[in-house]
Please model this.
Amino acid sequence: MFEFELIKQSTTTKARRGRLRTPHGVIETPVFMPVGTQASVKAMTTQELADIGAMIILSNTYHLHVRPGSDLIKAAGGLHRFMNWSGPILTDSGGFQVFSLAGQRKITEEGVTFQSHLDGRRIFMGPEEAIAIQHNLGSDIMMVFDECTPIPAEHEYVRQSVDRTTRWAKRCKEAHDRPEKQALFGIIQGGLYPDLRQRSASALIELDFPGYAIGGLSVGETKQEMLSALDYIPDLLPVDKPRYLMGVGTPDDLVDGVLRGVDMFDCVAPTRIARHGLAWTSQGDVSIKQSRYERDFTPLDPACGCDTCQHYTKAYLRHLFKAGEILSARLMTLHNLHYMLEIMRQLRQAIEQDVTSEWARDYFANRRATIK
Model:
C-alpha cells in the first residue's frame, strides 16, 4: 500500500502540498526526515521524535548491514520493531557510501566492493544485495543502489556513471518482489550537467518507480550551483509522484527546495551541529559555547514551543555544553529538529493557503535581519 496524492499546487511558486500513504502511516508533504543512520536519531528516543511531530525517519542500508547486520534486524521483527518506531521509515541504499568511502572502494558493473569503515573487512554490495538487505530491514520506502558522483567531475565520467546507475536501478526493480509492502524509489544523478540530468530522469521514468529522488547534490558544489540545478531538475520528474532531495537540509535549503517543487528532505545537519553547540532559531544561529550566553537566562528561541525552549535557558545550556554533559546534546538536538519540523509545518500551511511567496519572503527577510 503506497499512494501519493497531490493536494495543492502553489499558484506563485513550484511548491506542492501532498500526502503519502504507507503501510506504517501517512506522511504529509513537504516533509523533513530526521536521520537515524544506525537505527537511532542521535540523542533522541523514538517517543521524543513522535512528540515533536516527526512523521518519517531515515536509516542507512550500508551501516546497518555492517552493524548489527540485517539478518539480526529481520529476526527482531524488522527495523520498526528493532528501534521501536511505529511510523514510516525510509532506507538509503548505501549508494552514498560509494561517494563518501571513495578511498576504500572499487566500482565494477556488478557493484561496489567496500572496505568496512569499522574493521577494514571487504564488503561487496550490488543492486541485488542492497535490495535484499532493505527487504530484511522492512522499510516503507527503499532506494535503488546508485553511484553518487563528486562535483566537479568530467562529463564523460558522469555520463558513464549515470548509465550504470540506470542499469543498477533496473536490476534493483527486478530484485524487488514486494512492491505492495515497500516502495522503491529511483535516484536521478547527473552532477551539474543538465543534459545528463535529463538523460537520467528520462531513463528512470521509463522504469516507472513510485517516487524519485534527486541525488548528487550538496557534494562539493556551491550553494548557487545547487539552486541552479534545483531550478530545473524537479521539473523533469512526474507531477503525480513524490520528489525527494537527498542529504540536503539546512533551514534555508528546505525553503529553497520547497519553492522549487521538492517534497521530501533529509539531512544529518540538525543533529550534528547540535552536538557541537549550535542551534538554529528564529532569531538567528546561536553558538551556545560563546561567553555572551554565560548569564543569559532567556530561552534559545522565545518563539519556539519545544521542551528545550520552554524549560531551559541559554545560560544552563551553555553550562551543560562546557561541562561536557550528555544532556547538552539531547536538548540542543530536540530544539533543532523541532525547528526544522516547524518550518515544514508552516510551509505546508502556507501552500494550503496559497501564501507561499509571502511566507518565504518574510522567512528570508527575518533570517537576514537576525543571523549572527
Notes: The mean pLDDT is 95.
